[in-house]
Write a sequence for this structure.
């Protein structure tokens, strides 16, 4: 059965994607997407019943799989090079050529690594990513069915591009599952580059000028990450002659040797995880249809980065490389949380929040202790479900009112109550006790006790996140804005409602289970020691839920009330929404949140944060050389 489960997780989505391309009827495409979601969910749960395990499924352990991986190390850079030449993009060209050079050196200039006897390893970390991809990714794919129909109607397309879209979307899920389960560095690398290709194609899907520009930015940045990854793998091959990932993460292997190869791989992971200063590619991905943003931010692309760092975490414990990685992750958590606070674009808020929370997970990986790794895995799983929920909600609200600006989303509780309540619950799950993100942050702070600077940055970043999400929720749940674009007749599609409510149940359910998930991932002695402090979680959870229900009922009543015009202390004006103020001047009445752009504005803060982030990443690589 192991072979069957892994075959379904990796090969079925790719085959279903190809079928979507060939069978272009909308009804058949919907059936294929629904069937893929069911197959992935069943196979992931089936695999969970067998984990932890080591196995060698025929198709991943075969010589053919290795030959395909070797061919991919050349084919992907060649394709990237052709795209760079076509679009005359020098950075894409440079990094594609560097990847080709490294591939040639690895193939012809180095001795082949020792054979990897175990092709697949499914431990707690791998299983967590497989479940995230197969469950959250499948729900996003189902949400995409009605969304893309409305999206193309809005664009007035004469020929639908949905067959290509769903082919890439579904294949992406298969590639991610392959990446999560691979125990061979070269097979892992092939799946890694496949995710770069999928993200490039999905971000540029609409083929507008902005979409093409953002897609190329994602391509060159992630190709640069590919250069770091290949360089690290080749150094491992030269230094140790192995390609076995499980052997690689043994601290004993690195005793007395440089950690430069792992530092380079960590750099590649930081690019994939959109850590500062590489956050631009993820922000640019917002031009893509919302299912793409949800997939990249929650269950696929960015999770590659944190997965890699968590996989390497045991080696980082107590090393200077690990300490610098912790600082870099904690700094991104702080800086990206501050940048999120200065945004009014709802998708940008979610994007910066994603980069921030991934930074926190990478900081956990740098610490490398069992407590930190467990906290990182819990944060990875719960962030995927919660952030996927928020992206689906924002996308649904955007299609309802035609705007993603937070000021235009004021009073959505009256227009789209289901979506607004789900978004509010998701945003509160990011910060309120006793749900999972807070539990994960609590465990991360405990693990960071030996690093006061990182601990302070985590604490301040968490405080900024609270302000950001409270503002987000308050806006959605407030009375209708004077300039609201909401259409009272608008409603959420039933196909959209299902994934949103399922994701909501997952976010809340996993949040409640977070302490026990954390304890399960820890060694017995450590888990028992921490578990005693979490015995208060059930009553705290029940109390919090009751408070949520009361608060939602109160806000729901408030949202139905008509807002009175505020007293403005001036003479009335003939123009609606304005008044005559000092010196007889006509003033327009406006309302909105305070974004404190003088402190949290993007232009200045991005430059400053970018300089610090570059310095930390240079220290990450430089420190490994010492």
């Amino acid at each position: 059965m192991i072979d069957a489960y892994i075959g379904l997780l990796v090969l079925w989505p790719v085959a279903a994607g190809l079928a979507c391309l060939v069978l272009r009827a909308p009804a058949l495409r919907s059936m294929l997407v629904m069937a893929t979601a069911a197959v992935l969910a069943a196979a992931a749960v089936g695999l969970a019943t067998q984990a932890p395990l080591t196995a060698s499924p025929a198709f991943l352990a075969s010589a053919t799989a290795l030959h395909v991986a070797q061919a991919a190390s050349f084919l992907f850079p060649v394709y990237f090079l052709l795209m760079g030449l076509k679009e005359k993009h020098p950075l894409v060209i440079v990094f594609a050529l560097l990847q080709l050079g490294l591939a040639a050196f690895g193939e012809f200039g180095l001795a082949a690594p020792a054979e990897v006897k175990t092709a697949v390893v499914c431990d707690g970390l791998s299983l967590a990513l497989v479940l995230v991809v197969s469950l959250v990714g499948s729900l996003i794919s189902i949400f995409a069915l009605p969304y893309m129909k409305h999206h193309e109607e809005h664009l007035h397309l004469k020929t639908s591009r949905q067959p290509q879209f769903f082919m890439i979307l579904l294949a992406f899920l298969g590639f991610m599952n392959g990446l999560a389960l691979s125990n061979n560095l070269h097979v892992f690398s092939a799946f890694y580059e496949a995710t770069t290709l999928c993200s490039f194609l999905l971000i540029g899907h609409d083929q507008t000028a902005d979409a093409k520009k953002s897609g190329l930015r994602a391509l060159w940045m992630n190709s640069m990450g590919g250069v770091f990854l290949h360089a690290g793998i080749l150094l491992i091959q030269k230094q140790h002659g192995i390609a076995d990932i499980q052997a690689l993460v043994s601290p004993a292997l690195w005793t007395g040797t440089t950690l430069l190869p792992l530092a380079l791989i960590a750099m590649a992971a930081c690019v994939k995880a959109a850590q500062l200063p590489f956050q631009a590619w993820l922000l640019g991905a917002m031009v893509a249809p919302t299912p793409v943003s949800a997939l990249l931010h929650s269950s696929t692309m960015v999770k590659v980065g944190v997965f890699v760092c968590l996989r390497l975490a045991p080696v980082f414990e107590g090393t200077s490389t690990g300490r610098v990685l912790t600082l870099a992750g904690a700094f991104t958590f702080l800086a990206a949380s501050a940048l999120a606070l200065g945004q009014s674009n709802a998708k940008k808020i979610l994007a910066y929040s994603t980069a921030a929370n991934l930074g926190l997970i990478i900081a956990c990986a740098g610490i490398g202790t069992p407590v930190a790794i467990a906290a990182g895995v819990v944060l990875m799983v719960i962030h995927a479900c919660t952030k996927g929920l928020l992206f689906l909600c924002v996308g649904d609200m955007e299609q309802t009112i035609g705007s993603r600006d937070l000021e235009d989303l004021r009073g959505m509780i009256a227009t789209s109550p289901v979506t607004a309540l789900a978004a509010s619950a998701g945003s509160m799950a990011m910060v309120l006790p006793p749900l999972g993100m807070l539990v994960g942050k609590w465990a991360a702070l405990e693990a960071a006790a030996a690093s006061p600077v990182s601990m302070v940055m985590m604490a301040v970043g968490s405080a900024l996140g609270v302000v950001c999400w409270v503002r987000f929720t308050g806006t959605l749940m407030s009375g209708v804005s004077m300039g609201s674009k909401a259409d009272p007749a608008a409603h959420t599609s039933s196909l959209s409602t299902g994934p949103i409510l399922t994701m909501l149940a997952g976010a809340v359910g996993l949040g409640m289970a977070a302490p026990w998930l954390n304890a399960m991932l820890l060694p017995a002695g450590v888990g028992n020691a921490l578990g005693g402090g979490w015995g208060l979680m059930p009553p705290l959870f029940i109390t919090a839920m009751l408070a949520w229900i009361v608060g939602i009922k109160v806000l729901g009543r408030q949202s139905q009330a008509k807002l009175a015009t505020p007293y403005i202390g001036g003479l009335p004006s003939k123009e609606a929404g304005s008044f005559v103020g000092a010196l007889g001047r006509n003033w327009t009445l406006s309302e909105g949140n305070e974004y404190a752009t003088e402190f949290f504005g993007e232009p200045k803060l991005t430059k400053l944060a970018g300089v610090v982030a570059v310095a930390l990443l240079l220290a990450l690589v430089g420190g490994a050389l010492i």
The longest strand covers residues 53-55. The chain is about 75% helix and 0% strand. Residues 488-493, 528-532 have pLDDT under 50 and may be disordered. The CA atoms of residues 175 and 191 lie 6 Å apart.
